[in-house]
Write a structure and sequence with these properties.
Strand order of the largest sheet: 1-2-3-4-6-5
Distance between the termini: 69 Å
Order of helices and strands: EEEEHHHEEHHHHHHHHHH
Oligomer: single chain
Shape: flat
Structural class: alpha+beta
Strand content: 5-15%
């Protein structure tokens, strides 16, 4: 019995449960780290009538074994009624309720389901995902696979992940020395080569040339604000100023570079520090992009100074905006109070 991800929407993921003999195949929702099924599917799972499931569930709630509030929720589902597709809210029951029913109906089938569910939820909680390998292999989930690849690329080019992976690569070099100044400069050199390849700007040039007090988020077109205030560190990261197309291209090149590094490690091919730079240049040229041949025309210090000045101006603007919003809210409260009083 294998946990398999079959599809995903904005709120839930769907898992396909099947027994070893393939006699039972049921799609279950995975939401809030537990599995959910409607009464009809629970009946299919344990091979009984829906009325039997309903009777057991009522007894479970009446006895106080489980709380209805904690174990039941409505999900919007699409059903076919004749030629029409109708959306309806249907009650779903979580894993606790399903297993409680299972103990009352058929312990053997419940045991098999419990083993599968425990394994599936453990995998989901630890990894954050559960994959449907068979669908990928047969080509039935290519759209989701493309989306998955895109999400992996986004993670790979995140500052922390990319730095760690480059560090892992660098450590394998024959002439690696963690205390050498070249070790510190290596990541910056690789980073600048990649940024230049997709934008014809070094990290410092991206900050200096694209930071703009008049633009939203100070011109950081790829910065994910996530309802938090912009920090002074955020505005100094060159990658935050890349466009959507540049970010996608960066992800593809980074993926090729890391894949090559993994191949070399798998083959136990000895590599020097200079080899990694040379191979990166080769990957960049292979993609038809321009190589960075110098340190750029904008220094790190120039970028820091300009961004610091504009950041202070941004903070003043945001403070004024917050004051105006507070005044507006206060005026609205006073107006409401007067209306109530009168």
């Amino acid at each position: 019995m294998n946990p398999q991800l079959t599809k995903q929407d904005t709120q839930t993921e769907f898992l396909l449960y099947k027994t070893a003999d393939n006699k039972i195949k049921i799609e279950a929702r995975l939401y809030n780290d537990t599995i959910w099924l409607p009464q009809k599917k629970i009946a299919e799972l344990f091979g009984v009538y829906k009325s039997t499931i309903s009777e057991h569930i009522n007894n479970i709630f009446q006895s106080g074994e489980l709380s209805k509030i904690a174990t039941v929720r409505n999900f919007r589902t699409v059903q076919k009624e004749g030629t029409r597709e109708v959306q309806r809210d249907i009650e779903f029951y979580n894993l606790d309720a399903i297993l409680s029913v299972g103990y009352r109906v058929n312990s053997k089938q419940a045991t098999g389901f419990r083993i599968w569910a425990t394994k599936t939820l453990k995998e989901y909680i630890i990894k954050g995902f559960v994959l449907n390998d068979e669908r990928f292999k047969t080509g039935n989930s290519m759209q989701y696979f493309d989306e998955l690849q895109e999400r992996i690329r986004e993670i790979r080019i995140s500052e922390r992940f990319f730095y760690q992976k480059i560090k892992d690569i660098y450590i394998t070099s024959i002439d690696y020395d963690k205390d050498d100044e070249q070790t510190i400069l290596f990541f910056k050199k690789v980073q600048n080569k990649l940024l230049w390849a997709v934008s014809k700007n070094t990290a410092a040039e991206l900050v200096y040339n694209r930071i703009d007090i008049k633009k939203p988020l100070l011109g950081m077109s790829s910065f994910d604000k996530e309802n938090k205030k912009i920090t002074k560190k955020d505005i100094t990261i060159g990658k935050n100023y890349l466009t959507e197309d540049e970010i996608k291209l960066l992800g593809l090149i980074v993926e090729q570079y890391l894949s090559f590094a993994q191949t070399m490690a798998q083959q136990k091919t000895p590599m020097y520090m200079s080899d990694w730079i040379e191979k990166l240049d080769g990957i960049i040229k292979f993609n038809g992009r321009e190589l960075l041949e110098n340190a750029g025309v904008i220094s790190h210090k120039m970028a820091q100074q300009k961004s610091a000045i504009l950041y202070e101006k941004h903070k003043i603007k945001e403070t004024e905006k917050e004051k105006l919003q507070s005044l507006s809210e206060l005026e609205a409260d006073i107006k409401t109070y007067k209306m109530i009083k009168n």
